[in-house]
Amino acid sequence: MSLSSPVSLAMAVSGASGEDLAAGISALREAVQAAQIAADNAWMLVSSALVLMMTGPGLALFYGGLVRRKNTLATMMQSFVLMALITVLWALVGYSLAFGEGSAVLGDLRYALLRGVEGAPNSDYAPTIPHQTFMVFQLMFAIITPALIAGAFAERMKFSALLVFMTLWALVVYCPMAHMVWGKGGLLNAFSGGAIPCFDFAGGTVVHITSGVSALICALYIGKRHGYPSPAMKPHNLVLSFIGACLLWVGWFGFNAGSALGSSALASSAFVATHFGAAAAALGWMIAEWSRTGKPSVLGAISGAVCGLVAITPASGFVKPLPALVIGLAAGVICYFMVASVKQRFGYDDSLDAFGVHGAGGTVGALLTGVFATNAVNSGLKDAAGNPLPLGLVDGNAAQVFNQAVGVVIAWVLAALGTFIVLKITDAVVGVRVSPEHEIQGLDLSLHGEEAYNFEV
Amino acid sequence: MKKIEAIIQPFKLDDVKEALKNIGIDGMTVSEVRGHGRQKGHKEVYRGQEYQVDLLPKIKIEMVVPSARADEVIRTVIQSARTGKIGDGKIFVYDVVDAIRIRNEDRGEAAL
Q: Nearest-CA neighbor of A315 among A274, A356, A258?
């Protein structure tokens, strides 16, 4: 590939024969394409690994530190086992149901057992990376989304119930939502002729609204932890949570900038927006908390950063850096009040605030994407003459705010209904909640037969 | 013989140990304990959820000393452990019936 093509081109030019010239140009074109695939694939493989790092160790540490000591391992295991479970499911039917070209709401089985998902790019999705890379990148999203939900029912769900619930949830909620927003022919897919063009660059609706709203339903269905809120249910190790949150922040560059599906200027733009959103949200939460309780807590600052990352996710490939700051700031402040005020008022036990952070942050981000999306950042949508179409309100397309709201409503309804049905089935098959004795003893010992900290040994 | 039990602020342990060493007291048992007297606890807030923490970490030092030295030891602990603020702790003094060194069965003050 490397030197031979330019050399043959030079020979062709000097040799003058028209046939040689055509062959040389064709060889050069192939070489350029191969170089772009190599460059894009390198970034996408790194991004895929970064997104997996968000679940384990990122989310496992973040959640693991927030629970009481007796539930540390069980909480980490919830994240970890999804890395295994969803992967198998993805290979069997998950990828195909999300990305096979089926109906407007669900994919078909053309890629079941990963049939035909190999080295050649799939031009429907990502023409410059191997189809396998696209598949595995998307898998990492399918892993972290259900793992986020686990924060809502932390410290009280059976492990067997988790496996049943998450398997069904991925099929009933995640795959349809991913297909609608990102799949070829999906109802909300702005770039594939969807009936309701909804902008969701990296998963504000698909990942964060679905997981956050499902988390709320889970918290309401499974009920409060034994004794909540009277006995101290303090985080047992905020150092773990701190490390986890920082890993999430770094991993999120793969999540959002990787969603450019190539090593492009759009990836850089998404990278920058992601970082700015997180930074502004960390400050937003910190200031809101400081002015309300008198102290800027570490848990608050890292929670704020995660909220900003959530909110910037749908917008990351559509907005400029300064709007990213605005989105982050809004998310930091709004999520703080969701968690510190709204949750207390209604009294539900969303134990690790999966709804307050991901449901609220995802909704804020999805709606503000309709405001700040601009074709100066993303020129992917063009009219018949090839000119970029206006995207959001700032481009003069006020209707996009409405489209975003429709996408948000669909995500909320699908997540709420799907989760309720899946919980009912899970409850009937294995029962969702551990016994009170097991809950008091702690899930590490009662479910897994181990303890996280054996200092006396 | 007197048993002197001092509950002190954890960060004062080194000062107290050093002061006791300087007056020749080198036998002691130290435990990490939690409790409160008049100090009561403090408030912690995690994501808006308030927790009242009543039992605070303290250090308990136990020493058995010859009765003649008890006042000196007590004064030393007071001087080295005092900050003047609420929460400095308390000292309890008990009579001790006997003491035995397990290694060679020395008894009484000889065992200290």
A: A274
Beta strands in A29-136 (DSSP E): none
Q: Which domains does chain A have, with CATH numbers?
A: 4-11+20-448 (1.10.3430.10)
Distance from CA of A326 to the nearest CA of B (A): 22
Each residue's pLDDT tens digit, A184-228: 999 999 998 899 999 999 999 999 999 999 999 999 999 999 988
For residue B51, what is the nearest residue in chain A, using CA coordinates? A232
> Of A234, A303, A336, A341, which to mutate for an interface test with B (greatest number of B Cβ within 10 Å)?
A234
Rounded to whole angstroms, the Cα distance separating A267 from A258 reads 7
For chain B, the domains span 2-111
Fold of B2-111: Alpha-Beta Plaits (3.30.70)
Using a CB-CB cut-off of 8 Å, the residues of chain B touching A340 are: 47-49
pLDDT tens string for chain B (112 positions)? 999 999 999 999 999 999 999 999 989 999 999 988 776 778 889 998 888 888 889 999 999 999 999 999 999 999 999 999 888 999 999 999 999 999 999 999 999 8
How many A/B residue pairs have CB atoms within 8 Å?
29
Task: Determine whether the interchain pair B51/A341 forms a contact, defined as Cβ–Cβ distance below 8 Å.
Answer: no
CB–CB contact A353 B49 (8 Å): no
Query: How many whole angstroms separate alpha carbon A390 and alpha carbon A371?
Result: 11
Are the Cβ atoms of B51 and A235 closer than 8 angstroms? no
Low-confidence stretches of chain A (pLDDT beneath 70): 1-16, 457
